[in-house]
Amino acid sequence: MYNRVPERLMKKTKKNKLNIIFPILGVILIVLAVILEYAVKTHGKKILSSGWVGKHEETKLPETANITFSPTMIPSPTTVLSPTSIPITVEGMNQNYGPCAKINVLIYHHIQEEETAKKNGQTGLTVTPEFFRKHLQYLKDNNYNLITMAELKSFFDSGTKLPSKPVLITIDDGYKDNYEFAYPILKEFGVKATIFVATGLLNNPGYMTWDDLNQMKDLVYFANHTWSHQGSNGTKEKLTEEITMADKQLIEHGLNSDKIFAYPYGGAGKKVEEILKLNGYEIAFTTIHGNILCKGKSLELPRIRVGNASLKSYGL
Question: Tens digit of pLDDT for each residue in 96-136?
């Protein structure tokens, strides 16, 4: 008998099975197609998002998406605390440099008409006669007291009391317009001022003459501004020559008996301060902004540079 199904019968059996399976698969596919068509019509978006492929409308995205991005958090740097600045006061300065006083020392250079200043390229150093007059009127109206260098020296040397709201008027370099415009206005108000002159420039074009100085002595104190307007960065020999030459010339004309000095270009320094001390100078002015004057820093005294504006705008 047969140990296995004959090959002929096996082929026939397979063929019969396929004849049964194919129709069934066909029916299943038809049913799935119907379901898919229905699903696309009613739930197209869900089917598309699930990856089904079929006949459907294209989904449109808005031109600008309303998406909010959260920034990446960056660690904040460690805060370094700066020490609280301490306001400079007369009381505070007195502890280290006293005696001290609040004195507004005003700086001027040219006192001339604006047209002349523009023509000569001097607008940055010019206060017009109109504003110079307004400044003096402001000081008078607001009860400021114009003091002299002799009063300042007496305060430093012996503690002589100063009047309330003291002010010093200083004018640098010795320009001719100081005689032509500033001096008549000083006479008009009856107030005194100090002019720092570079003595070697006197009698030159644009500068006053020794005769001008002699006529102004009733209201103006003339002080040392070196011989040729030499800055503090010169050699020790040059600075010594400049300071002593100017000192000698001023003394010969009966001027600057109190030994007052102002640094050309405004800068002090140990070298020039030592030369001043050797020549008997104890008071010298810079162009550093400030209004607290102390004996302990009497060779580095501050001033306030003013221009064509109300003195109120400079803190007065």
Answer: 888 999 999 999 999 999 999 999 999 999 999 999 999 99
Model confidence pTM above 0.85: no
Q: To which H or E segment does residue 267 belong?
A: none
For residue 145, the SS3 value is strand
Q: Which residues pair with 296 in a beta bridge?
A: none
Domain borders along the chain are 10-54, 91-314
C-alpha 4: how far from its chain's center? 109
> Which region holds residue 105: left if phi is over 0, alpha if psi is between -120 and 50, else beta?
beta
* Dihedral angle sign, alpha carbons of residues 288, 293, 298, 303: positive
212-270 tens-digit pLDDT: 999 999 999 999 999 999 999 999 999 999 999 999 999 999 999 999 999 999 999 99
268 Cα distance to chain centroid: 22
Helix (H) or strand (E) holding 262: strand 260-262
- Buried-state track 37-74, b at ≥16 Cβ within 10 A, e below 16: eeebeeebeebbeeeeeeeeeeeeeeeeeeeeeeeeee
Homologous superfamily (CATH) of 91-314 is Glycoside hydrolase/deacetylase (3.20.20.370)
CA-wise closest residue to 246 among 279, 283, 274 = 279
**Tokens of residue 248, six digits:** 């000698």
